[in-house]
Amino acid sequence: MGDSRSPTKDSYSILGITKTATIKDMCKAYKSLVTKWNPDKNPSNKTEADAKFKEIKEAYKVLNERKLEDLLANEDDPTTTAGAHSHHKSVDDIGFFSRRSSFLSRTSSRRSQTPTPTRSYLSRSQSKSSSTTPRMQSTPATPTSTTKFSTSPTSTTESSTKRASESRSKSTSRRSASEIPSVLSRNASRRSTTPIIFSQSTARRKPPPVEKTLECTLEDLCFGCVKRINITKDVIMDPGIIVKEHEVLKINIQPGWKKGTKITFEGKGDERPGNLPPDIIFSIDEERHPLFKRDGDDLELKLQIPLVKALTGCSLTVPLLGGENMNLSFDDILYPGYEKVIPGQGMPINTDEEKRGDLRIKFLVDFPMHLSRKQRSQAHAILRQCT
Predict the structure, then answer these.
(1) Is CATH 1.10.287.110 what the domain over 11-69 is classified as, yes or no?
(2) Do the first three CATH levels of 11-69 and 292-384 match, i.e. the same topology?
(3) In Å, how far are 107, 216, 274, 283, 385 from 212, measured between CA atoms?
(4) Phi and psi, residue 259, nearest 5°
(5) Domain 210-286 is classified in which CATH homologous superfamily?
(6) What percent of the chain has pLDDT over 90?
(7) What pTM did the predictor assign?
(8) The domain 292-384: what is its CATH number?
(9) How many angstroms separate the CA atoms of 243 and 254, rounded?
(10) Range with the lowest mean pLDDT among 158-172, 318-332, 343-357?
(11) Could you give the CA distance from residue 140 to residue 143 in angstroms, rounded to a whole number?
């Protein structure tokens, strides 16, 4: 019977690649297809997208594991020369192999200081007489941790010829294990190409929240509004590829909100291997208004009037927050520091939507910069008896 994981013509055609395609080409095609056929991005034909998504994943898994086994088989074959397989085993392929091994390894005891290898990639080779199978494990410290190799015999026989063959195979495997890390060490300093593949950790912690500032005008905080914020975040797609995803967050600004009010979106931050996505917290900040200044639930407005109106009384048009106007008449003398309070024209009270603060108008009296001698005499005659 054939290997159920052997690549077929359909697997190559599903990914849209040829049989001579490299691992990098295969991964690039896979990333493009899973992004295109993600069921969440195809709500109109979700059934077709879901079937296509699973088909792409299965084809990628079959081709990827077969290429990985071929790569490891070449490392264990002592008769293969560097020139014979240098075309198929580039530094990029080995670099991908180290990242892929980090993803495929499943270690149940990641929290221990000495993780135990739990998975072999050449299980079929256990039936061969010459066998030291490389087993891969990833240290749980970081997602890009260096892959380690260890060798262990998988079969023994009583035949002296098979023991001799096993001894030669061990020697060859030790040489391969000592050569591969040196290649991986040189490749680790290079910037990895997409797709980026990480191992999934069972113990996931939540990073600190990401805090952002949301600027709002006094009108926004007085009458309420809806703010839509575009964010771009990293999302880990199965089987561990990080892609960019755009999302629109909607915030309903309530009347009466103040500076410092915080709105939390749980789990909307960037996804990272081994971590839960952090929360995003938006903190309200008030933009400076050209006319009004907020003081708690009250609004302050400063108006300048000439001295003659301050002394003789006047009618004024007072602007209100939102663009409306109010007409006020004053018979009293408006001295510097005089304050007029208009109830119910301030900011809404968040705990009681039916109530509002006050509008406090402070008057700034403009005194003349110059008076003639005659004007001074007249002003003195008028004001000398005022108390």
Answers:
(1) yes
(2) no
(3) 37, 13, 24, 6, 62
(4) -60, 135
(5) Urease metallochaperone UreE, N-terminal domain (2.60.260.20)
(6) 32
(7) 0.47
(8) 2.60.260.20
(9) 34
(10) 158-172
(11) 7
